[in-house]
Amino acid sequence: MNLILLGINHKTAPIELRERVAIPRERLADLTRQLSSVAGIREAMILSTCNRVEILAAAESADVRLDHFLTGHFSIDPAELAPHLYEFRNIAAVRHLFRVAASLDSMVIGESQILGQVKDAYNVGRELGVISTELEPLLQSAFSAAKKVRSETEIGGTTVSIASVAVDLARKIFGSLNGKTIFLVGAGKMSELAARHLVAQGASSILLTNRTQSRAESMAAHFTGSVRPRVVAWESLHEAASQADIVITSTGAPHPIFTREDAQTFLHKRRNRPMFFIDIAVPRDVDSAVNRLEGIFLYDIDDLQSVAAAHLAERTRQAADAEAMIALEVERYEQRQRTVDIAPVIVALHQRAEEMRLTELRRMHARLASLTPEQSSAIDVLCRSMINKLLHPTLLALKQAARSGDSDRIAAIRAEWALPDILVPDASDHVPSAEPAKSTAESTAESAADDLVASLRSRS
After folding, report:
1. CATH code for the domain of 98
2. pLDDT confidence of residue 432
3. Is 0.90 topped by the overall pTM?
4. Which end of the chain has the smaller Cβ count within 10 Å, N or C?
């Protein structure tokens, strides 16, 4: 197994750098395809969220490097990016992937969105045909482990996400959201979650906009009750923003959609009433210079970590239980993988035994020629049964050695059975015209064959 996972996340890099390597959803398929075409890459997947960009690949050898792909594609000086990158290989990569899928590596421990985001990245790879025999079982195991964590621990007992943390921050800023006007910019999953949390906290007026208005209208239609988001045309983005007390923005725009000049205009229209921006987009939707204006308060996704810390404190015990569960699932995956890796040796062993069986039958061909088809079939069954029983202890030893990682024992079994030199007999093989001198074992086998033939004949 040559598994590589390379990434950058909220723990290793500031948002200023993360937004430079963020991958828009509409470009994810194209970049995944480009990654899979890199020399030495057999299978690949890219996970891109507001807090991380990670590349997962099955490589042909341990010499394959993925950092060149990131620095080359995003035109970033390797010396600038390298200190913020992390790389895991083989079982360490498996462990990291399982922890990410189970939301143990998230800014908000236990948030529910990350598993869906990993599945989205997996679906992109599957549709492109770049996830197959190596990454497929790995990702299915990661999904299974994450599901087990969420169902068997309390880590997901309450709904927690970046969106909910953003709403908590808004509530703490104002004390109460009653009577406040909230403007949601972007109609993605994050905005919908934020809207639902806002309604639960008492927000009485919610504005919503998106570049594709039909998507905003579709999201608004999901809300029932007295509070329902009012859809605003994208062209009226800045006019609507000046009416809002809190702007929560989460778009996929490559550049800021709110500048310092925009914010100055908002303050003027609001007669200097304070305004709060909560920017949970990566790349950021709001220019950081906005925060220098008096009366404007800006929080980006990294600022939310202080609020997330409170949730983390409440989930410490649950997180510990989840970590133990993930460690066990990783160990089980590793054992299954070792068993899969030993499969070629098991196949070779069976082939070696079958070669010996067929050789002996061909050598006894003249003595067995007078048997009926039923009698020949009985001998064939008997030989196969004996071979299987003789192989059984060796097969158990191989599987146990694989589970425990005992490569020396596996090598010894291979050498004992001369497995590296096996040639599977062809159907066209013929009995050689000249045979070497018979060993004692061969003479015994001939005698046993004679006895068996005589016995079968006496029954016919």
Report:
1. 3.30.460.30
2. 33
3. no
4. C
